[in-house]
Protein: DNA-binding transcriptional LysR family regulator
Amino acid sequence: MNEKDCIMLQCLAEEQSLTKAAERLYITQPALSYRIQQMEKDFGVSIIVKTSKGARLTPEGKYLVTYAKKALIDLNKMKDQIISLRNEVKGTLRLGVASYYGLYKLPPLLKRFKEYCPDVQFNVTSALSPEILELIHQEEIHVGVIRGDYPWFDARCLLHDEHIYIISKDEIDLECLPDLPHIYYKEPRIKTMSSIQSPFSETIQAWWHERYNTPPMITMWVDSYETCKEMVKQGLGYSIVPGVFVTPQDGLHTIDLIRKSGEPIKRNTWMIYRESTLELAIVDRFVQFMKNQFV
Structure:
C-alpha cells in the first residue's frame, strides 16, 4: 500500500461515497473502484460495502484507514526531518486555520511569508476551531489558528482579541433585552470533539445569567454571523456577534458586552503549535514571523 492508496482510503473514510471521494482525488469513479478492488485482492478482505446511501467501510476497511492515517503522518514527519537536517527553510508548511481567519486575515500573511521564504509551499485547511484542534492533536498540521479559548496545553501565542457586541438597528435598553426578539447564532455541529462546548457560547451564557433571570426570546436560529447582521439590519431583532463582523458602514447600534465587574468580554484568536515542532526550520521561521506581525 503506497502513499496514494493511503490518501485514497482517507478520502473514502471522510466522504463515505465513491463519487465524492473520486471527485476529491481528481480521478474517475471506475478508477477508484478498480484500485479498491485491487487492494481487496491483495489483503484478501472486503474494504467497503456499497449501500443505497453510499459506501460503508467494513471493520477491515476501518482498520486500514487507521493504518493509512498513521502512515501518512509518519511519512510527513520523515520528509520534515530530512529537510530539517539540512537546516533549510523549505518544504510544505501544514496549517489549520479557523474559517473566518482563513478568509480575511491569512492570505496577505502567507503572501508576505512567501516573499520572505520563497521555497516554502503551503497546505492549508480551513475549518472550525474544534476541528483545527483535532488536526493538531493528530499531528496532521504544524500550526493552527483558532478563535476562542479552547483548551490547549502546549505552546500558544495570542494574535489579537476583539470586543463582543450586541447589535441592533435602533437603540435598545439592556433592561428590556429579554423581551426583545433575539437572532441567535447557532454553531454548526462538529463530529470531532463534540463534548466541548464553544467558549464563545459559554461566555454569552455566563454574561446573560449575570443579568437576567429569564432566557432570551430567540426568534431566529442562524449559522452565520453575516446572516445575523443582515437580519438585524432589517429590524427583525438584536444579535450578539464578535466585533470583527461589524463595521461603521453597517449603520448599526452597538453595545459592548461587559461583565458586572466592568471587565469587557473579548474573543481571542490564538496561534497554537507543539513546542517540539520548532525543531523544524520551516515551523520555527513561520512562528517567529507570526509573532513579529502581532506581538
